[in-house]
Amino acid sequence: MNEVAYLPIGPWQLALASLAIAVNVALSIGLRLGLARTLVVASIRMTAQLLLIGLVLEWVFALDEPLPILAIALVMSGLAAVAAVQRTQRRFAGVYWDSLVSVLTAAFLVTGFALVGVVRVRPWYDAQYLIPLLGMVLGNVLNGISLALDRFTEGVAQRRGQVELLLTLGATRWEAAHALVTDALRVAMIPTINAMMVMGIVSLPGMMTGQILAGAAPADAVRYQIVIMFMIAAATALGAFGVVMLAFVRLFDARHRLRADRLRRVERGRR
User: Fold this and answer.
1) Gap between the Cα atoms of 261 and 188, Å rounded
2) CA–CA gap between residue 31 and residue 240 (Å, rounded)
3) Is the N-terminal amide bond of 191 cis, ω within 30° of 0?
């Protein structure tokens, strides 16, 4: 079997690939979706961010001390926690803190288990493994937390009358909110489950494809991808459960009362 050669992509090739976004822009203009400007800005922003992180990662991978690597991991987690909340339509006091606690707990527990127990990286803080694995986990935890939090708070607002009726009839706060909690967790985990169901048949995930293009043996790339998907599923479930339970405690007090007054709706365009 011939060894696969790594084929680098130059600036002109990158510029040529950017023409693909013209399809999205053309559809937006032709159908008057109002997304053309947003698509262009998002494309430019994504390109700049990725090119910058490519330079930063060269420096990060050269680090040999745990403290700066952990500091970078904390910054990544903090940004993920903020982004998760900013995608929700209803918020309450302390929601950013709840999101941060959920992100840190889920991402660090699962990534730590994978680094130390599964991949067995030595040292465990090796940035070449820790940062990419944590980044993939954070991206999915972010989405899970955002979906769960948005579904739970919307459910509290829209089904307020039903919940308060249950509480009036003697139900505990957990009994009254149980359906809202389970619905939020189900919504958060559906994207991951759907991705797992078709992976390897319909889709080839990005990490596996990247490893294969870089010359790794397909069998090795597949094993890494399986580990990643298990990590993502576990972290998404933990993060979503954590943020929903913290929101539950804030919106249902110890006297078994619904505190819907603590919720505020965020106007579109505001953060």
Assistant:
1) 25
2) 36
3) no
**35 shares its domain with 69:** no
Tokens 């910054």 sit at which residue?
A: 75
Q: What is the pTM of this model?
A: 0.82
Do 249 and 177 belong together in one domain? yes
pLDDT digits (tens, 9 = 90+) for 18-63: 888 888 888 889 888 888 888 889 899 988 988 888 888 888 888 8
For residue range 209-239, list pLDDT tens digits in order.
777 766 777 788 888 888 888 999 999 999 9
Whether residues 101 and 166 fall in one domain = yes
**What is the total count of domains within the chain?**
2
- Structural domain that includes position 45: 10-62
Q: Is residue 270 part of a domain?
A: no
The CA distance from 71 to 247, in Å, is: 27
Q: How far apart are CA 241 and CA 223, in angstroms?
A: 27
Domain match, 214 and 89 both: yes
Ramachandran region of residue 200, left (φ > 0), alpha (ψ -120 to 50) or beta? Answer: left
Residue 259 domain-assigned?
yes
Distance CA 144, CA 186 (A): 10
- Structural domain includes residue 3: no
